[in-house]
Amino acid sequence: VLQTKGNVPGLENTLVACLERIFNTKYGAALIPQFMPFVQVGLKADSQIVRSLACKTVTCLLEHLDDNTVSPARLIVDCDVYPLLLDCLLNGNEQVAAASMDAIKKLAGSPEGMDIIFPANNNEATHLGNIAARCSSLGKVRVLALIVKLFSVSNLVASAIYNSNLLNLFEAEINNTSDTLVTLSVLELLYELAEIQHGTEFLSRTTLLHFLGSIISTSTESIFRSRAMMISGRLLSKENIYMFVDESSIKAVISAIDKILEPSESQDTDESESALEALGQIGSLIQGAVLLLSSSPPAARHVIDAAFDRQGHGKQLSALHALGNIAGESRPENKIILNEVAEDSLRRLMYGAASKSSKLTPSGLLVSVLHQDSEIRLAGYRVITGLVARLWFLMEICSRQEILNIVTDASTETTKIGMEARYKCCQSIHKAFLSSSKLINDPALAGIVAKLQEAVRRGPYLGGKNAEAQPVVKTAERF
User: Fold this and answer.
1) 401 Cβ contact list (under 8 Å, min separation 6)
2) Contact (Cβ atoms closer than 8 angstroms) between residue 247 and residue 288
3) pLDDT at residue 276 tops 50
4) Residue 143 C-alpha from the chain's centroid
5) Can you list the positions of beta strands (E) in 294-443?
6) CA distance 238 to 199
7) CA angle 88, 90, 95 (to 5 degrees)
8) Cα angle vertex 11, ends 10, 13, to 5°?
């Protein structure tokens, strides 16, 4: 019926929906091997929804077929299905391309499937590198998107991609095109690639980090620089990145971002926010935080200056979150405190920023932050949570009753995320007190300790000390 060109309205859509539901069951999948010739025809059909159905049928075959006597990968080879899936990827519409990617990704989940996708002979027509070399710009972007999907499957597949030199296609495509949209698409794909945890080792073996630093330093397009900074930040926030990348490469990227934040370099707000966010991601790891605070001059100075500058809301918000990361809010308890040089730099930068403002002290700066809108307050709680592990900052907190009043007042915040951030901040201050024998035994601070203890006991959500559920009585609505 699907091969005939009948004029019955909606017939094709109805049949496709029915077949898709059938094949998506174990019983339906068991029938697919008998109908592989029809799958072949469907993959070559003029109708896009039929082609999409055929791609999804291949996925169902790989997902649900439990028959040990039939190898799905062998069926795909015998029926020459893989080249047809690649054709759907390159020449189908968006839905067909997505369905073909899903099928190929599922195929990569088995050793036999990997042999199909990554042939031993690099001159094979179906080798992804050869396909990318001879297709259109849209086709190349789709091939790169497929590589990202495959890269996420497993460490084994990522290794095969690296060994096939397919990661170099991203850099080559950015260098070889003058099409802004294509470049942005490839950068977005690189951003996704950098998120894949098991891919860090393979990405670090390429020249990607050096390439990103070059874009940040030399590109004339602000949007390209912004995306390159975000990719760098994401890549350098991976826990194991310092096992594979030498420190000089990371310093070069930090230096490039540092120059973007120089007042004379960029007035682009979005670019500045991207730069600050990237520094925050780098600083989320203890090694990155040390580099940001120990460079000369320390790149973290831009973060601290912007965190307490009320001239731009978005820029201040990005800087406060970045400072929270550098201070250790997102790190495990045993990795909050940095080495002596970095800690001294952090302290000097905080007091330096305060001295240049009307607030005069770091605690004064934080009071100002906590009196702003809820987004800024939430970021401010994160900063305090991280910094309060330092004795000098804990003493700053003790000197400002106003900060303690805000963080211990459960009615300050009205959103769940705000309540939880405030409570975590309160817990951190309380824990810092308990960890300091110097302060915990000071009679003058006994009232503060008791106030914190009571706030921690109440939890994040209880606005009143004796809040109880109250019944609501109202007249029933009648019709």
Assistant:
1) none
2) no
3) yes
4) 22
5) none
6) 10
7) 55
8) 65
Task: Report d(CA 66, CA 177) in Å as an integer.
Answer: 46
**Model confidence pLDDT, tens digit, residues 189-215:** 988 988 888 888 888 888 888 888 998
Task: Give Cβ neighbours of residue 458 (< 8 Å, ≥ 6 apart).
Answer: 410, 465
- Residues belonging to the chain: 479
Sequence letter at residue 49: I
Residue 412: name the closest of 462, 348, 345, 350 by CA: 462
Name the CA dihedral angle for 240, 245, 250, 251, rounded to a multiple of 10 degrees.
120
CB half-sphere exposure, 266, CA atoms < 13 A: 27
Query: Over the stretch 326-375, which tens digit does the pLDDT of each residue have?
Result: 999 989 988 999 999 999 999 999 999 988 888 788 988 999 998 988 89
Peptide bond into 297 cis (omega under 30): yes
The count of other CB atoms within 10 Å of the CB of residue 74 is 11
Read off the tokens for 131: 């396909």
Torsion sign over Cα 200, 202, 205, 206: negative
Q: Which two tokens stand for residue 471?
A: 């019944």
- Indicate yes or no: pTM above 0.85: no
CB burial readout 142-178, b (16+ within 10 A) else e? bbbbbbbbbbbbeeebbbbbbebebbebbbbbbeebe
CA–CA distance, 228 with 368 (Å, rounded to integer): 33
- Tell me the C-alpha to C-alpha distance, in Å, between residue 95 and each of 51, 90, 92, 100, 152: 9, 12, 8, 9, 20
More confident call, 46 vs 101: 101
> Are the C-beta atoms of 145 and 106 separated by less than 8 Å?
no
- 38: which 2 tokens? 């029809």
Return the structure tokens found at 311: 């001239």
Structure tokens at 289: 């935080």
pLDDT reported for residue 258:
92
